[in-house]
Design goal:
Length: 91
């Protein structure tokens, strides 16, 4: 039996990336690996493989649970609260 999609992902209206850099890493001169887009405030931040993990930190601190990948060719969304991911339509 497959788990139901969480309420955060079920009500998702995708906000695509508007930047090709991590907003926080750029301020400090840090490097990032991959980018994520907060679906609450549209901040573009680095992934958990990056040294600073800004996207996850932002999600927890700001209570903004859903992020999408900003990587070309990747179309998925992730809810940090429910540790659940779904595929999304290309934006």
């Amino acid at each position: 039996m497959q788990n139901a999609v969480c309420k955060h992902l079920k009500s998702l209206a995708v906000v695509p990336p508007t930047k090709d850099y991590c907003e926080e890493c750029l301020k400090t001169g840090s490097r990032w690996v991959h980018l994520r887009v907060c679906q609450t405030c549209s901040a573009v931040l680095c992934c958990d493989s990056s040294p600073n993990q800004h996207a996850s930190r932002h999600a927890v601190q700001e209570n903004h649970p859903v992020m999408i990948s900003a990587e070309p060719g990747e179309y998925w969304a992730y809810c940090i609260i429910h540790d659940q991911a779904i595929d999304i339509d290309p934006y």
